[in-house]
Amino acid sequence: VWPLLGQSLLPSFKERDFLMHWVTEPATSHPEMVRITTRASRELRSIPGVRNFGAHIGQAFLADEVVGVNFGENWISVSPDADYDKTLAALDELVEGYPGLYRDLQTYLKERIREVLTGSGEAIVVRIFGPDLDVLRTKAEDVRQAMSGIDGIAELKKELIVEVPHIQVKVRLADALRHGLKPGDVRRASATLMAGEEVGDIFTGGRTHDVHVWTKPKWRHSVDTVRNMLIDTPFGGQVRLQEVADVQVLPTPNVIRREGGSRRIDVQANVKGQDLATVAQEVQRRLDQVDFPLGYRAVLQGEYRELRAAQKSLSLFAVLSAVAIFLLLQLSFRSWRLATLSFLTLPSALVGGVLAANAAGGVVSLGSLVGFLTVLGIAARNGIMMINHFQHLERFEGEKFGLALVLRGARERLTPILMTTGATGLAILPLVIYGDLPGHEIEYPMAVVILGGLVTSTLLNLFVVPALYLRYGAGTVEAEGHPTAPTLAPSPG
Fold this sequence. Notes:
Blueprint: E1 6-7, E2 17-23, H1 30-45, E3 50-57, E4 71-78, H2 84-95, E5 102-107, H3 108-118, E6 124-130, H4 133-147, E7 153-158, E8 163-171, H5 173-178, H6 183-195, E9 197-204, E10 207-213, H7 223-227, E11 230-232, E12 238-240, E13 245-253, E14 258-259, E15 262-271, H8 276-287, E16 297-302, H9 303-333, H10 336-345, H11 351-359, E17 363-364, H12 366-396, H13 403-434, H14 443-472
Parallel strand pairs: 1-17
Antiparallel strand pairs: 2-4, 2-5, 3-4, 6-15, 6-16, 7-15, 8-13, 9-10, 11-12, 14-15
Helix pairs in contact: 9-10, 10-14, 11-14, 12-13, 12-14, 13-14
């Protein structure tokens, strides 16, 4: 069953606050973006269970995100008494009703965690590197087409890096010097006239108001008016911008993405209805079939890369831990044979957890791994106590090695093992029964794995370990120089 289990770094959080990116083509105007967002707001608020809606469009002044007016973020809150799954399905259906927009819908918590871990809000990111932007866009479309037919891929999109009209001011050095202007003077003056510049602050009524120098709108609405803008010269006069610089409208990328000195573009997607590892492996397989020119490459990143990194770290520490566990078992039993016997039986204790995880959805997440470690610890503890008790009976209570010793030891350890199992099982039972609720996304898979693992670990320690000790434990006590204690005969009278 283990190879059939899916893998995921983060569970599906059932948070009731959702974040939705709402991105149109870069050429979309601000009024049109407001119109679309306002219409979506009315439709979203009409869904039963939606408590409120909020949005921001574009970039606030001096904000941390450099985006245009075509970029929006919407926030949707779902009422606590609403049916979560039904409301979420209605939200998804409504969002899908806006074709042509780049949008996604995910919980605020998951989106924030992904951005911190991977730098992107999507689960799967294919990052394409290369020198030429046109080739990057072409290969990004090829990758998007290759990913479009994968089962489980949702909200697939190519990063919006397109050509937009841009006013470019190129200083003519000779003409500028003739008027006493340096190239930096022209660039700073034209930037101030076109975009404005803060020159001071006004403090009134407990608020701070920025003071900006800017031109009137009529001077910024055509290329001809921009060319006729007046720039102050060092001699006290003024000169038109077109007299010292070439002003043209040229195509330029709406955003420049670079990493490690190379241009890049992303193809992004989320995962629904499948586990992350299965979808990502299929993406990697199809990615290997896409031909890239010399100097271009694609790298699979996102949440899946963090999952692989976590798995590698976990595998390394698991090997080191396994060696430490084996040495501790030998130290406890003072027998390499018994240490090997106990060590090799520990994975069998996890069978119940694997079956329980498969029955509860078939995806191993962070909580499931914690559950497996817990079961392994309980099984190791009970196994050590069982074998140590067998040794104690043989060393100090005069029991001869054989079936009677094993049966007596198993009976005497029955109550402590059942008490440990019962107490642990009762403690986590509420999480299994009521665990599939918002806020329990990590504890629920952990509790399921522990409860299933307790069954097999208990059977292992009560039946398998005693039988194996009876088969392979003969002579382990005497071999360590601990003679069996003599049986004391009753004194006369």
